[in-house]
Every structure is written in C-alpha cells, then in structure tokens.
Amino acid sequence: MYRLPVSGASVSLREMTGAEEILFAEGSKSDSELELAIVSRLAERLDDQNISWEEFTPTDVDALLLAIRQQILGETISGDSSCPAPACGARVDISFNVGQYLDHQRPSQPRDIEAADEPGWYRLQGSPATFRLPNAGDLLAIRSQPDPASELVRRCVRPPDQPARLLRRIERAMDQLAPSPTTDLKGTCPDCGHQFDLQFDPRAFALRELREQAAFIYEDVHSIAAHYGWSEAEILSLPHQRRVRYAELIREERAVS
Kind and range of the H or E element at 72? Predict the structure, then answer.
C-alpha cells in the first residue's frame, strides 16, 4: 500500500506483467502518456472515489511511477555524471533511495493561503484570487498550446489576469503544496571537492530504466515458449518476477547441459 504525498490517497499496486512491458518496449506514446497508461493499469485506489489519474498532481503520479520502478528494480537509484569543474571532469557516482527522494519532496502548507469554497481550490489571504493545483491532465493538454504557461494560468487561476506579483505568490504556494517532481540534487566531486547541482527528473529516469528492462521481454518469451510450449499470451500474463525466474532457470539448465 502506498500513500500519495499530495492527495494523501491510499493506493495499491499490482505487479507488472509482460503486457505492460510490451507497452514500454513497443509503445510510441510520449513520456507523459506512457506514465499515465502504466499507472492506470497497475494502480488502484483503496477508497470508493473513482477519479481519473489525470486529475492527480504530477507529484503524485511520479511518486506512483517510482513505486512501480521500485517493484521491478529495487529501492536504490544509481547514476553517474561528470564533474563540471573545468580542470576536473572526473566521474561522480550518485546513489540514493526512493524513500529519501520522496521525503525530500514532501509537501508543506503555506501560511498565506486558505481553502476556497470549491473543493480543491485555494485562496490567497488578502486577495480575491483563487487557484487549484495543476494536474497531469493539464500538463498533457497544454503541450500543444502556443503559450503553455499562460494556458496553465487560465486553467488553474481565477481570475487568470492577476498581477505578476500575485502570480508569483500563487506559484510559490503551488510549489509548497505539490513540490515539482524535477529537482536539483547536491553532489560533491570525490577528486576535486567541487560541489554542484544535478537535475533529477524522476519520470524520465524511471521510464528510461523500465524501457531498458522491458527490452528483455522478447528473449524471455522466446526461451519460455521454446522450453514449455506456452503461448505468447500465457507468458505475457505472468507477473514480472515469476517470468524472469522461469527464464533464469532455463538459462541455468542450458548452462550445465
């Protein structure tokens, strides 16, 4: 069971099967569309509310994607970069766990806002301006707009023609209520001691790793079908860990024969 950081909704996740991995391996969807498609297939709310995942904040949806990635690849996130210091350029290994990242992204309640009359909307104290948090559906919808930022304001702020000063206050409040999933991580070069920021996009990172993992689906299906005579549909319906174990046993058997 997972509790989402912004909405507080309790969610259960079923284990990914080969059917979802085919989406990673063969899908032509954008990252945002693929993320929502995978979350919609694997996540289920544990209350009675029937709300589309597009209505959840990107912070919540990305947290779910990280939880799915955690099921397949584990708690630790590892990567590397190059030291940006001109005279260095040494490789810097970076490692942290999903829980640490989510703790860092935990929302907080701004002191200068209050709940508006409409559920899900907030009001700036001392101002007639109200706003709601952008959701995943908003970000999908504004991608093709000539001015995405203005379109997002039109969707999420009432009235939308607020002075720049108030819009900045609203933006700060939004970032406290639903911290941006993309964040800067602090790093220190072990060779020269240079400190630097490294941008981490959890959606792009998790989708890249899951796509790489899904590339093995064809080899697994081929091996299991040849060994047991099962159909592709039967193999793709297996939970990920079980299918991987069958494929491992086949490789082990072939290695000693």
Answer: helix 58-73
Task: Round to whole Å and give the CA distance between 174 and 168.
Answer: 10
- 211 is written with which tokens? 């796509």
Residue 89: give the domain boundaries: 2-106+181-214
Rounded Cα gap, residues 131 and 164, in angstroms: 15
pLDDT score recorded for residue 178: 95
On whether both 169 and 186 belong to a single domain, the answer is no
32 and 120 within one domain? no
Same-domain status, 77 and 201: yes
Give the per-residue pLDDT at 136. 95
pTM for the model stands at 0.89
Q: Which residue ranges of the chain lie beneath pLDDT 70?
A: none
| Long-range contacts, stretch 154-161, CB < 8 angstroms, 24+ apart | 156/131, 156/132, 157/129, 157/130, 157/131, 158/121, 158/129, 158/130, 158/131, 159/128, 159/129
One domain for residues 131 and 172:
yes
Domain count, the chain: 3
Alpha-carbon gap, residue 243 to 225, rounded angstroms:
11
Q: Which tokens go with 246? A: 């069958």
Inter-CA distances, 112 with 30, 109, 124, Å: 37, 9, 6
- Asked if 38 and 98 sit in the same domain, the reply is yes
To which H or E segment does residue 220 belong? helix 217-228
Return the residue matching tokens 């099921």. 71
